[in-house]
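Budget justification aside, the reviewers requested a transparent look at the raw inputs and outputs of the sequence design task funded under Objective 1. We therefore reproduce one unedited record. The lines immediately below are the structure tokens for a 568-residue chain.
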């Protein structure tokens, strides 16, 4: 007891020393999140966190809870939760064994490199973002069945039962959700007509039921994975897509397979960080940034201080330049992972950094590696009673994906094809630029920024986290880790704290509004940084779990959304 009191005092003392006073956007900055003894689920919605936890209370493990949470989010958070999209999972068993699952969408077999170019050879973003051609072959259903087959301990019927009940009985529309549905209503109607479920106006407090989705889930629970990839559901899906100008065939669905992959792991001070490998750029880019900033004493500079922002921004600039050149689907392109993460290479990349002035992105391109040829996503974190940890980010890409809603089956389809580089040098919807490595090819997976991550300290589980936010995912996840390890914040504090972002191009540092002092921003401007403070910009929406020194779990649920921690 005494030990914890001293620890608490130390934390308070350190925090008051190290975090300079900045205007705060979120009043909860000093609060602890939910603390629980045995298990925890943190996700974008209360209903999904509760269902995941319920599965654990019934004796299920973190993987059973993953299946339930993933599907519950498809019901209650159709903005990003999905059956028609894809994602990544990083896991750590209580034995210390780690691994990753790639259930990312794939380009259809009839896709081709120039499919989004118009007659003049210009990229047409409408084609890659909406309508049938924008849709990649969905991976989520294959993902949950692969997780269940390898690690599941309960029957699929039991796991899906509470999700099916949720879809049938309905959930309450939150004010955030009502606003989001309203914002996207016209484009949903444009894509699907006025008679679909999502065309109806919704008020906060309304009950939202989705019987078509309940019926699809019943079929999956009875018939298994093949229902979606070769059964009646597959046939309905293909028919729907073909009517909408899509090119996905039964052959595409039958050929879809998930990949178990080795995660990317790297050391940062006394932490071992385990994150997603390609086709996500998350682990490599975060690893590059963190290795570049590791030599600098960030805690001495202070949280969100000018010097701290400079070091992080410059490292981000260099890492995102590498991302655009080197990264793509590892089943199609060779990625020099070791070299990109090597100490020597990264030290050289920071050679021309100076605290006096900003480096210009036009002076930075990808690094030279000898011998080398050349807020619509959602994250949830789970720790079960046995100490197994699961970190999952899943997406439709844009809000409600391509907006194409399969009324008969009850779910939206992704527009993940926009994550490919439609044409070298042309930015995607997140302003990210790609090259050859991320060009469209049949059956290839599009490059992602999703960064589901698990952190170890002294060989033990320490943190589970991730975020939506397109290109800002990587930097949001990284800042949350830094907030805990460099600035001694608790989990909720670290998640709530204001964030900033740079991604090489466009050459600007983006800041959350009302969260950084004018003096800080001015000082950066004087050094040549282009400072952007978007009025309603939020960067990432992190859902995380921290193992406290006493072994209890602290949840960090992002106050930027309806995110909620559930634990016992
Ligand atoms: O995989 C990716 O990087 C993107 N499709 C993620 C999209 C996303 O995070 C949108 N959320 N706000």
């Amino acid at each position: 007891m005494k030990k914890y009191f001293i620890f608490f005092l130390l934390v308070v003392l350190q925090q008051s020393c190290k975090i300079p006073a900045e205007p705060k956007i979120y009043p909860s900055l000093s609060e602890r999140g939910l603390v629980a003894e045995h298990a925890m689920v943190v996700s974008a919605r209360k209903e999904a966190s509760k269902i995941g936890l319920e599965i654990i209370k019934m004796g299920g493990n973190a993987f059973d809870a993953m299946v339930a949470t993933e599907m519950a989010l498809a019901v209650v958070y159709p903005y990003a939760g999905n059956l028609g999209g894809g994602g990544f999972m990083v896991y750590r068993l209580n034995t210390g064994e780690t691994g990753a699952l790639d259930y990312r969408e794939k380009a259809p077999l009839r896709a081709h490199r120039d499919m989004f170019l118009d007659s003049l050879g210009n990229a047409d973003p409408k084609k890659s973002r909406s309508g049938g051609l924008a849709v990649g072959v969905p991976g989520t259903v294959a993902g949950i069945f692969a997780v269940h087959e390898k690690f599941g301990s309960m029957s699929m019927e039991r796991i899906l039962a509470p999700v099916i009940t949720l879809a049938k009985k309905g959930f309450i529309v939150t004010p955030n959700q009502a606003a989001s549905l309203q914002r996207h209503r016209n484009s949903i109607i444009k894509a699907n007509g006025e008679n679909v479920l999502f065309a109806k106006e919704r008020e906060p407090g309304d009950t939202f039921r989705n019987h078509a989705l309940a019926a699809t889930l019943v079929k999956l629970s009875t018939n298994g994975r093949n229902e979606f990839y070769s059964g009646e559901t597959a046939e309905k899906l293909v028919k729907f897509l073909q009517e909408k100008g899509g090119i996905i065939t039964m052959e595409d669905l039958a050929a879809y397979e998930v990949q178990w992959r080795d995660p990317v792991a790297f050391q940062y001070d006394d932490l071992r960080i385990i994150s997603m490998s390609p086709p996500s750029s998350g682990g490599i880019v975060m690893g590059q940034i963190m290795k570049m900033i590791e030599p600098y004493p960030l805690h001495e500079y202070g949280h969100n201080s000018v010097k701290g922002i400079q070091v992080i921004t410059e490292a981000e600039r260099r890492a995102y330049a590498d991302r655009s050149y080197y990264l793509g689907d590892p089943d199609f392109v060779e990625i020099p992972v070791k070299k990109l993460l090597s100490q020597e290479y990264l030290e050289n990349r920071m050679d021309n950094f100076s605290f006096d002035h900003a480096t210009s992105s036009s002076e930075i391109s990808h690094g030279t590696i000898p011998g080398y040829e050349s807020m619509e996503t959602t994250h949830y974190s789970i720790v079960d009673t046995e100490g197994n940890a699961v970190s999952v980010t899943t997406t439709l890409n844009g809000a409600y994906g391509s907006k194409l809603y399969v009324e008969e089956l009850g779910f939206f389809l992704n527009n993940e094809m926009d994550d490919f580089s439609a044409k070298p040098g042309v930015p995607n919807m997140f302003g990210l630029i790609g090259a050859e490595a991320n060009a469209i090819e049949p059956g290839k997976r599009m490059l992602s920024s999703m960064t589901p991550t698990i952190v170890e300290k002294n060989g033990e589980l320490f943190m589970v986290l991730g975020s939506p936010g397109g290109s800002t995912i990587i930097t949001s996840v990284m800042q949350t880790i830094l907030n805990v390890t460099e600035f001694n914040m608790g989990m909720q504090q670290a998640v709530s704290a204001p964030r900033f972002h740079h991604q090489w191009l466009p050459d600007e540092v983006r800041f959350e509004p009302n969260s950084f002092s004018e003096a800080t921003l001015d000082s950066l401007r004087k050094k040549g940084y282009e400072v952007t403070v978007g009025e309603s910009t939020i960067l990432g929406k992190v859902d995380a779990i921290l193992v406290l020194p006493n072994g209890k779990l602290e949840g960090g649920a992002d106050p930027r959304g309806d995110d909620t921690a559930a634990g016992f």
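The chain has a mean pLDDT of 93. Residues 375-377, 395, 397, 416, 419, 448-450, 468-470, 473 surround 6-diazenyl-5-OXO-L-norleucine (CB under 6 Å). Computational costs for records of this kind are itemized in the attached budget.
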